[in-house]
Amino acid sequence: MKTTIAATLALSVLGICGQAQDTSKTPPAPDNTKVNQRDRSKAAPTADQAKNTTNDRDTMQKIRKAVIADKSLSTYAHNVKIISQGGKVTLKGPVRSEEEKSTIEQKATEVAGAGNVTNEITVKPATSKKKS
Q1: What pLDDT, in 10s, does the model give residues 18-46?
Q2: In what order do the strands lie in the sheet containing 88-95?
Q3: pLDDT tens digit string along 64-93?
Q4: CATH topology of domain 44-126
Q5: Residue 40 vs residues 36, 102, 123: alpha-carbon distances, Å
Q6: Is 64:83 a contact under the CB 8 Å cutoff?
Q7: Looking at the whole model, is its pTM more than 0.70?
Q8: Which end of the chain has fewer CB atoms < 10 Å from its terminal CB, N or C?
Q9: How far apart are the C-alpha atoms of 73 and 71, rounded to whole Å?
């Protein structure tokens, strides 16, 4: 009796798990594809070009912590690229508003100092979903 109950339970769990794994749907396309294409330019600083010096790592870490600590910012804002090279900081990526853009720039300037921050953040407002 116990074996039958255990087998039935195991088959039920497998059936539920099998239903949850619908691979027929295609994942949504990233909404920053054009931005990523722009970043392929050799002249444009990208995250992998950030310097590995202690000062640059500390600068990026302090800015990232300040941005993440601000819970009023959107997920987009929390995920901006912060690139430090020789004490100069470049900010990139989409945010939801001009206010978020200026808030992140202000936080970066507080850490890196005035004149050391290049703000290349773009504003991409949330799009409303159309009803089908």
Answers
A1: 555 555 667 665 555 555 555 555 566 56
A2: 81-85, 88-95, 117-123
A3: 999 999 999 999 999 999 999 999 999 999
A4: Histidine-containing Protein; Chain: A; (3.30.1340)
A5: 7, 25, 20
A6: no
A7: no
A8: C
A9: 5
